[in-house]
Amino acid sequence: MRDSFDPSASEIETTTAEEGKTRKRPRPGERRLQILQVLAEMLQNPKGERVTTAALAAKIQVSEAALYRHFASKAQMFEGLISFIEQTVFGLINQINQKEESGLAQARGILQMLLFFAEKNPGMTRVLLGDALLQEDDRLQERITQVLDRVETSLKQALRIAQTQGGTWANVSQDEVSIRAAMLMSYVLGRWHRFARSGFKKLPTEASDISLRILLSE
């Protein structure tokens, strides 16, 4: 399951000459991926400090000008991270929906996946919460809000399926389904905030089975 960037995917090969080791030119797209990987790693700083392009360039050991050969702006780098989140999260939601026929099982799977994704990708959690996007381009906040709205819609769709499958959920109104979906999303956001505020020590998945059983009960 593609939960996080694989550092090995962007390793730069080196060759040893008589003068010592020399770095080969990165393959197409390799440096771009490396920049996004290192940015995500730097966002894992428990202090939540803002990442500057100067610090990012220093971490990669390239010039700031080299960064801008791959990304037109810092905002575009964050857009790359948001695209990764979007593709991964909705790819996993599709897998869950294809695997599970039960609407409640779909909702539970989506919620568990969101908690697990944050736990495995602390830096991405700060992007999802918008913390890492403060003082950046406003459109980034709008973009991540759209992603979260789509996730809530996916939860709502799963609960609507549960309505049609009989049992106690058959008596739940459409308005209540929307309220429930919003409540579940608030639970996830709360877990993410708790994780980030604790310096990534209080894991989002802690006792999540019990929490989800209560939240999805009727």
Relevant terms:
mainly alpha, two-stranded antiparallel sheet, about 220 residues, disordered N terminus, Tetracycline Repressor, domain 2, 2 domains, 9 helices
Structure report:
The protein is mainly alpha-helical and 218 residues long. It has two domains: 7-67, no CATH class; 74-215, Tetracycline Repressor, domain 2. Helix content is 62%, strand content 4%. It contains nine helices and two strands. It has helices at residues 30-42, 53-60, 64-67, 74-99, 103-120, 122-129, 138-164, 174-197, 208-215, and strands spanning 14-17, 20-23. The chain has a two-stranded antiparallel ribbon with strand order 1-2. α1 (30-42) crosses α4 and α6 (122-129) crosses α8. The longest helix has 27 residues, at 138-164. It is elongated. The model is unreliable at 1-22 (pLDDT under 50).
Chart the SSEs and their pairings.
Layout: E1 14-17, E2 20-23, H1 30-42, H2 53-60, H3 64-67, H4 74-99, H5 103-120, H6 122-129, H7 138-164, H8 174-197, H9 208-215
Antiparallel strand pairs: 1-2
Question: The CATH topology of the largest domain, please?
Answer: Tetracycline Repressor, domain 2
**Which secondary-structure class do the elements indicate?**
mainly alpha
Write out the CATH superfamily name of the largest domain: Tetracycline Repressor, domain 2
Q: Count of DSSP E strands?
A: 2
The structural domain count equals 2
Q: What portion of residues is helical? A: 55-70%
Low-confidence runs (pLDDT<50, min 5 residues)? 1-22
Largest sheet: 2 strands, antiparallel
Mean pLDDT: 87
